[in-house]
Amino acid sequence: MSMTLNVGLVQQPAWPDKDKSLTESERGIRALAERGAELVLLQELHATQYFCQTEDTAVFDLAEPLDGPTTTRLATLARELNLVIVGSIFERRAPGLYHNTAVVLDRDKGLVGTYRKMHIPDDPGFYEKFYFTPGDAGQGAGRGFAPIETSVGKLGVLVCWDQWYPEAARLMALAGADVLLYPTAIGWDPSDDDAEKSRQKEAWTLIQRSHAVANGLPVIVANRVGHEADPSGTSEGIRFWGGSFIAGPQGELLAHGDTETAHLLVSIDRSRSESVRRIWPYLRDRRIDAYSDLTERYLDRR
Q1: pLDDT digits (tens, 9 = 90+) for 242-271
Q2: What is the CATH number of the domain that holds 196?
């Protein structure tokens, strides 16, 4: 395996029309493949607009099985372009059981792994608990925080709200992930002032760069762009801020998008994680004998 890996991401708007959204995703993937990408990350729920602004049972009609049209289209692209694609689907697992699922398509192997979003938010404009069941905990393929083995390495795929939890990144690192990937859909309430918007976006970037530092791993983050109206008309909708980026294992920004469509590509030196972990040996010095309280919800020791 080469010591360099060309990683790319697609930052795009999305539309209610799946074909239109997926055509934009395909355009980005092809553009990155022409530039030598071997791994491409798409944003969260890239085939549709972010439908979780409201609670509507009719939206469940958008869900697909793992072998549905979105996965099939991405698998065909991965095979044709000889690369690995990390996509995102609204998964229909069974009647009444749905997930926010990342799918990994590997060259001529097709679907080689999935990750079902573990942390599910429920906030104004982000009513995800209405739609998504958390991923299953435990060991084994498709469960918990397990890296996905591909031809370009072990991918530690997490999804959006997962990005705020250091435990998720750490568990992926401990399980041997070579890189952390975060497909994302996050934006501003247009009614917030500029200072609040700046704080939110900087916190979002900072927490994910800190996962790179704490684990000595590259981090790839793909977010969407554009304004999406609230279908209910009760709010001003969401202005997705983009800001997708690729960071190295010391948190250094290697590429960074703005608020427009972007196709970012970086050549990552695989050997740097080993070098960084030798001088900052966090895994060596962890006090695993003292961390049992982390499995508690809260420590009330009054």
Answers
A1: 999 999 999 999 999 999 999 999 999 999
A2: 3.60.110.10
Given the residues 44, 91, 128, 228, select the one marked as catalytic.
44
pLDDT digits (tens, 9 = 90+) for 110-156: 999 999 999 999 999 999 999 999 999 877 777 889 999 999 999 99
Within a domain: 301: no
Q: Clarify whether 197 is annotated catalytic.
A: no
Given 38, 128, 160, 228, the catalytic residue: 160
Domain assignment present for residue 300? The answer is no
Residue 201 catalytic?
no
Domain containing 23: what range? 4-295
pLDDT at 142 (0 to 100)? 78
Cα dihedral across residues 19, 20, 24, 30: positive or negative:
positive
Query: Known catalytic residue: 24?
Result: no
pLDDT value, residue 290: 97
Q: Tell me how many domains the chain contains.
A: 1
Q: Which residue among 52, 117, 128, 228 is the active-site one?
A: 117
